[in-house]
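Service request form, structural biology core

Requester: graduate student, group of Dr. S.
Request type: structure prediction, single chain
Budget code: on file
Notes: please return the result as structure tokens.

Sequence provided:
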Amino acid sequence: MSITSPLFQHHKHCDEIFASAEDACANGDWEAGAKAFTLLVEQLETHFGTEEEVLFPAFETATGMTSGPTEVMRGEHRQMRDLLAQMKDALTSRDADAFSGAAETLLILMQQHNMKEENILYPMCDNTLGSSDVGPTLVERLKTS
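Core staff response, request fulfilled:
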């Protein structure tokens, strides 16, 4: 059973919102950019929270691994939150160069992060938790959108 399927799909959803925010700001449409960016932050925080509060603790409890891949993902979530704060500041001051620079760094980090989750961590979680008693409950709790 793939318990992480909702999170995989949510990555794509967040990517689409990110592209909308980036495009709007690149074209000088700060109002649309701000709207898309606000939605992006909300969706990413929902996603991060679901992983940090539901998936990661369940995986850590089942495996006993607390300083492995979940620790790395939490650290990357912090880095992404820092970049989102930089983007928010740039958006507020309508600084296209600063917004674009932080957005480019965030995009690279998100792509690398998502690849690690989708190709390493999520399959580990599916294998460990999918056939466990908590698997069906986790599927519902991991639906982020």
